[in-house]
């Protein structure tokens, strides 16, 4: 009953019509000659892999979980075999450079692939999901020796990676970390310390694991300016001797139970510096945008799975009479009861899911496309423009989509009634699995401060002007499109309000340092709602040019639903942002 | 680290000052002579039992879960022993009639007891939680034979009960149920059928289990008018032969894993009619209000546990610099990092939890007190008035408090960062356990329709006038209290808006049958927010008469926080209710 239909039609719509990616690709040498048939073929194959190989392992993997046996992590049955098939099909190399053995395809396709992997098996996808970030980090900052030795292994999928950041006393505040790196005199370092919450710190999918470890060099400055990044392999060579890297435990977690979350200890483990000494955080920043987009994607992926399964269930579940019936409804069921999809509360939930899911897909794929432009466009100005825009959108994608992923999964669960609480029906696992994405890769609270304080107020709102302008441009376009004027005037109002409120925040933060931090979460949510509004308006404009095709009719209908029922939340968020003078008292610990 | 401090101070505040229950008790013969010291003693003992006996079993019970072995359910280690102690302490009889062996104390105390039980171990509390409803049903509707035989066993806790309503095809729509009851000629019936989602359908806490089973008599009318209620014991007599009642399976669930959720089959099991034939739902309605208040209470109980543990953790967890520090802060930590409780996002979460938790406690205890008045006040008019009011407040308590229980637990989890996702820290279990309360005892969507369509619009808004009047009276009182005028004017605005919107709903529902159903969830949330506003205003008025006592200062501060930051949601809910002309399209199943 819990099944997956890859949303290929909507992905093609977003890529080809909403983002018109081929127009940009035609200007990028490595993408200019991409066969028109290749993209849908790749997406189709990815969807088949997700539905046929990963989805069947999802529920059983949750029940079985991971085990730590004699210091080695055993993943759930089937996970290793699925990874072998994933690797054999060449998926790890999809968006990597040909010079490292990659296929050189757009990151956009990799993101579409990962939406489908996360929809069907978030836990399994954790293992390979870290690889692309490690690839980007090594490509940008590693020495030739490290690149030559390790990049091909990452690209081929022969080795997987882990990101070793967190320590017990250093979570959101990495400046507090204590792991040490001692020079060994041969250009390598001995790494010693304990890391926690390491996804894929150990597993049985690959023989070697390449750990990216944050540590302090001797005499490094305190705080975040004294942190360096090292590559520490599980084995110094293929099939070689252990390197003092040990998994000391795995966590019992709320969800993603098939993903091993490890306590890792490094005991004089040999490692190599990546990038400059004490510039470890900067070296990792190169992958920050794509890594956070990938986490936002998980929120979208869970909401998609919740949506399509809830819709099927609601159409089949016969329960109670409905006050009103659709004109297309057939004869009544003998009992007088009807599919619950006729019920207003059920329709509202399903439409909310659809509007957020499809809007977020447009947003996430837009970000992925911007990452490609920032990386590969021949014109420096286009690269810089894309980079600035995706840097602003990244915290929105990460926090907005993952907050929604959890909230919408829970809303969907409600449609199953008691069945929703039972493991066999799938949705309760989605709720549990989706919860982690609000926390890792920077909590959603940190995303909000990153957006408002660092990125918007940080430059006086200058770069954020591109997003404000984007809203205004879509308002113009709607006002000039038959049937879309209502979207135009609504966006015009949102544009004015967003301009005004951003200017106020920039101005007032100068004298009230806490104000922006207090307002950050509401501001991020506001931006997410308005940006989704522009994407829905654009979808409606495109759909307006089509006739009675049900796909485009649904787009128009959902755009109206979004503007009528979901975008109004923006008003409440604005008011919350503007509640500057309302006290936020200190909270005392219990006496 | 996950511990429980019973909120006794706040309970006493609500009972003695906010509700002034002793003024009403003095008019009720069975409560008039209650020793002033007895109530705090009982609450203190209840808190000790919850903290010392139940809390330590909560996490382990979740990991162990229930097992079905040779047709018998085994509960987690320690559950049986805890029940023995619970029974020996006389807790099952607390609010039962002395004539059945009860202690005759107010339901108010039972509700306070159950808040503490649910805070510390929701799963364990499921077993005994059903008993009081069974007691009320038998007391109101059962024959003298059944009362004599079974009531003392329920009151003493010798036997526990289950409620057997749901069948696979009959969840929210009980009219579809198929279990049959055949007269046996001796006044008893043979019950045959399958029930699902039966909490405590089997267990090892008591030898006998008294099942209350909905079934159809021969030739019963179809639908809900053909349903009768039967008492079907697991054993026909103490230690006696089995009665054809079998547990065919237990569910793997998201949470409350220590509570056995059973598939029960009845195979010609001997049962006795409770109440009139075909009037089974009416017989169960007698316990509907108290049962739903008890579920709303679970939402409060989880939020309380989340709140107090999050507060302790936030005060201890040192991470990052804060932009502003409280005047009472001591020297900075050597690292420069500080307790996260200084962070604005953390304070907002904690204050939100505190404001909802303490407001909901006032609401739930008010309902419990109204149940006592409806049951026991000597004046029929006072009984009727209390009954009408609690009938209106019950769906609000059930849906509002359980929606909040889940949302607030999840908000609290976020404070722990990655630790929040790990079982050892307690909060992830709270999130999972709290989710069921939004579903069972009538989904929250059904509560909303019950409130707006059946209870408000059903009588043209007449009885609901008592709640509207309650808001107005509190506005009056605040306007006449020094320092509370701001609450008064805010409540005055809420009162006017609530009156107007209710009148509109009553008027428009006559011509637009779906409108009220669509608006129901937002209306219920609106009522919850406004009612909590009146209770917070009242708390602030009481606190205004006290000096610098920290308890009352916190009440004043939290009341302001509620009005400044939480009550504004009412505006968004009103606008949603009034979005009458915005389409809510039909949703098609995937092609």
Structure description:
Two copies of one chain form a homodimer. Chain A has 591 residues and is of the alpha+beta class. Chain A has a domain at 443-584. Helices cover 55% and strands 10% of the residues of chain A. Chain A has helices at residues 8-18, 21-25, 29-32, 38-64, 79-88, 107-129, 131-141, 144-156, 280-285, 288-316, 344-376, 380-415, 427-435, 444-456, 465-479, 485-509, 513-544, 550-566, 569-577; strands at 67-69, 72-74, 160-164, 180-183, 189-199, 209-215, 228-233, 245-250, 261-274. In chain A, strands 3, 4, 5, 6, 7, 8 and 9 form a seven-stranded mixed beta sheet that branches. A two-stranded antiparallel ribbon of chain A has the order 1-2. In chain A, a hairpin with a 2-residue loop joins strand 1 (67-69) and strand 2 (72-74). The radius of gyration of chain A is 24 Å and the shape is globular. The model of chain A has no long low-confidence stretch (mean pLDDT 96).
Q: How does the SSE layout of this entry go?
A:
The structure is a homodimer of 591-residue chains.
Chain A: H1 8-18, H2 21-25, H3 29-32, H4 38-64, E1 67-69, E2 72-74, H5 79-88, H6 107-129, H7 131-141, H8 144-156, E3 160-164, E4 180-183, E5 189-199, E6 209-215, E7 228-233, E8 245-250, E9 261-274, H9 280-285, H10 288-316, H11 344-376, H12 380-415, H13 427-435, H14 444-456, H15 465-479, H16 485-509, H17 513-544, H18 550-566, H19 569-577
Parallel strand pairs in A: 3-6
Antiparallel strand pairs in A: 1-2, 4-5, 5-9, 6-7, 7-9, 8-9
Helix pairs in contact in A: 1-11, 4-6, 6-10, 6-11, 7-8, 10-11, 10-12, 10-13, 11-12, 11-17, 11-18, 12-13, 12-14, 12-17, 14-17, 15-16, 15-17, 16-17, 17-18, 17-19
């Amino acid at each position: 009953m819990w099944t997956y239909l890859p949303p290929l039609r909507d992905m093609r719509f977003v890529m080809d019509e909403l983002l018109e990616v081929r127009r940009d690709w035609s200007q990028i040498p490595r993408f200019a000659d991409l066969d028109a048939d290749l993209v849908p073929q790749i997406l189709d194959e990815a969807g088949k892999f997700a539905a046929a190989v990963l989805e069947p392992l999802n529920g059983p993997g949750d029940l079985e979980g991971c085990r730590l046996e004699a210091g080695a992590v055993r993943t759930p049955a089937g996970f290793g075999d699925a990874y072998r098939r994933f690797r054999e099909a060449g998926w790890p190399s999809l968006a990597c450079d040909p010079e490292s053995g990659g296929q050189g395809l757009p990151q956009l396709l990799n993101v579409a692939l990962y939406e489908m992997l996360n929809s069907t098996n978030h836990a399994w996808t954790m293992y390979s999901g870290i690889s692309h970030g490690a690839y980007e980090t090594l490509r940008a900052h590693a020495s030739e020796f490290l690149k030559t030795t390790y990049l091909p292994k990452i690209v081929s999928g022969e080795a997987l990676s882990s990101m070793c950041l967190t320590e017990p006393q250093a979570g959101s505040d990495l400046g507090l970390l204590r792991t040490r790196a001692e020079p060994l005199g041969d250009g390598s370092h001995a790494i010693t310390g304990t890391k926690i919450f390491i996804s894929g710190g150990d597993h049985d999918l690959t023989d070697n694991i390449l750990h990216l470890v944050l540590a302090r060099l001797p005499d490094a400055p305190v705080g975040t300016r004294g942190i360096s990044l090292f590559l520490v392999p599980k084995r110094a060579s293929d099939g070689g001797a252990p390197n003092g890297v040990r998994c000391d435990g795995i966590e019992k977690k709320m969800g993603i139970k098939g993903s091993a979350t490890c306590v890792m200890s490094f005991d004089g483990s040999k490692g190599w510096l990546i990038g400059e000494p004490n510039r470890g955080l900067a070296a990792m920043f190169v992958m920050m945008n794509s890594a956070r987009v990938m986490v936002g994607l998980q929120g979208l992926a869970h909401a998609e799975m919740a949506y399509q399964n809830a819709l099927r269930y609601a159409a089949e579940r016969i329960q109670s009479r409905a006050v009103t019936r659709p004109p297309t409804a057939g004869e009544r069921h003998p009992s007088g009861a009807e599919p619950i999809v006729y019920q207003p509360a059920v329709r509202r939930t399903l439409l909310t899911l659809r509007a957020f899911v499809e809007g977020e897909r447009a947003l996430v794929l837009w970000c992925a496309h911007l990452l490609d432009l920032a990386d590969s466009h021949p014109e420096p100005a286009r690269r810089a423009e894309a980079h600035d825009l995706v840097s602003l959108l990244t915290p929105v994608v990460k926090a907005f989509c993952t907050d929604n992923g959890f909230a919408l999964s829970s809303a969907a669960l409600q449609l199953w009634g008691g069945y929703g609480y039972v493991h066999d029906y799938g949705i309760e696992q989605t709720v549990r699995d989706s919860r982690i994405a609000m926390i890792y890769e920077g909590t959603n609270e940190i995303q909000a401060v990153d957006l408002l304080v660092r990125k918007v107020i940080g430059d006086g709102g200058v770069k954020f002007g591109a997003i404000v302008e984007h809203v205004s441009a879509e308002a113009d376009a709607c006002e000039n499109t038959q049937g879309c004027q209502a979207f135009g005037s609504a966006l015009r109002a949102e544009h004015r309000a967003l301009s005004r409120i951003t200017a106020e925040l920039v101005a007032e933060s100068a004298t009230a340092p806490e104000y922006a931090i207090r307002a950050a979460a509401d501001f991020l949510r506001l931006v997410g709602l308005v940006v989704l509004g522009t994407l829905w308006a654009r979808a409606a404009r495109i759909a307006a040019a089509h006739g009675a095709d049900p796909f485009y009719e649904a787009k128009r209908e959902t755009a109206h639903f979004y503007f009528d029922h979901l975008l109004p939340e923006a008003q409440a968020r604005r008011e919350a942002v503007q509640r500057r003078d309302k006290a936020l008292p200190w909270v005392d610990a219990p006496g």
